[in-house]
Design a protein that fits this description.
With about 300 residues, the protein is mainly beta. Helix content is about 5%, strand content about 45%. The protein is built from two helices and 21 strands. It has helices at about 80-85, 235-240, and strands at about 10-15, 25-30, 35, 40-45, 60-70, 95, 105-110, 115-130, 140-145, 150, 160, 170-180, 185, 190-200, 200-205, 215, 220-230, 245-250, 260-270, 285-290, 300-305. The strands form two sheets. It has a 19-stranded mixed beta sheet that branches. A two-stranded antiparallel sheet has the order 15-16. The N and C termini lie far apart (about 50 Å).
Length: about 300
């Protein structure tokens, strides 16, 4: 008997034309670290009171897909996921900003050693989280939500396009600027930065179907946190005086030719904690929120190198 191994698994995706129509061809491989995609169902319990105390009714309700895809960010391989998270495609200028048009994917989870395939449809990132820090790749997690799943014994992916040979981004081939777009101060004391984009996607159940016809969504909410060594009062004063600022982060791979630049053109710090945690260096922890900027016409922009 053969048991499925994680090392023999693969994840592929195709772009859907709309929420309800699965992609049927042109799938692409996604390099992943982990994923936890699953079908979930609401549970309906009978409420009848019986003298023997034992329930008689338990049924399944509305379906949806949930889970996360964790990757090491690199050029090209995750642009479709990024576009879905931003609700906007990359433009001809290789920039993508926050938009208002949802996009959806069909994702196939293949257990190749036992020839089992789970096909997830209507998938899109409800959240996108990035973590940039020393001694790690640029960790990116897409928190997914979707419409339905099928269990199959044959693949639906057809001919699969291989992932690129691009190397993962790290924190050593980039830079972080604070306080001005292009003319801000290069900060050399930042230990880490992480942020989460939340779209608040949710199913819209209707009578007569156990799958939703649409996904509703809310505002684009971006919160994050910078951790920097405590060497001056500049960032603490910005929190105390409620002074708005900006953050620009570039990340790249060892080739130094594939950079992605992440721009938060208008942010506000909502804390500046400076604890004494141990005998080592003291750190400032600065949570921030990203707001709409009238010049850039967005709260967040990603620019990719051609």
């Amino acid at each position: 008997m053969t048991f499925s191994q994680g090392s023999r698994s693969s994840l592929t995706y195709g772009v859907q034309s709309d929420f309800t129509t699965p992609a049927s061809s042109n799938f692409t491989n996604i390099p992943i670290k982990t994923h936890s995609l699953d079908l979930t169902k609401e549970r309906l319990e009978g409420a009848d009171i019986q003298e023997d105390r034992m329930p008689r009714v338990d049924r399944h309700g509305n379906r949806s897909n949930v889970g996360s895809i964790e990757v090491d960010l690199r050029k090209g391989d995750y642009d479709d996921l990024i576009e879905c998270a931003m609700l906007n495609p990359f433009g001809s200028n290789n920039e993508v900003t926050i938009g208002t048009t949802p996009q959806f994917l069909t994702i196939e989870d293949a257990a190749n050693d036992v020839a089992q395939f789970r096909l997830f449809t209507g998938m899109t990132p409800n959240t996108m989280e990035m973590s940039i820090a020393p001694n790690q790749m640029v960790q990116t997690t897409f928190g997914m939500i979707g419409r339905n799943m099928e269990q199959n014994q044959t693949s639906s992916a057809g001919t699969v396009t291989a992932a690129s040979d691009n190397k993962p981004f790290d924190s050593y081939n980039g830079a972080i600027y604070e306080g001005g777009i292009g003319s801000g101060d290069l900060i050399e004391s930042v230990n880490s930065i992480n942020f989460t984009l939340t779209n608040s996607f949710a199913p819209t159940p209707v009578i007569g179907a156990d799958v939703s016809p649409h996904l509703e969504y809310g505002r684009s909410v971006i919160t994050g946190e910078i951790m920097t060594y405590y060497d001056n009062n500049i960032l603490i004063d910005k929190f105390i005086d409620e002074v708005e600022s900006s953050i620009q982060v570039s990340v790249d791979d060892p080739s130094k030719t594939n950079a992605y630049t992440l721009l938060f053109p208008r942010i506000k710090y909502n804390g500046a904690s400076v604890p004494v945690a141990d005998p080592q260096s003291r750190m400032i922890t600065l949570p921030f929120v990203a707001l709409f900027d009238t010049v850039e016409q967005t709260q967040f922009k990603i620019t990719r190198t051609v």
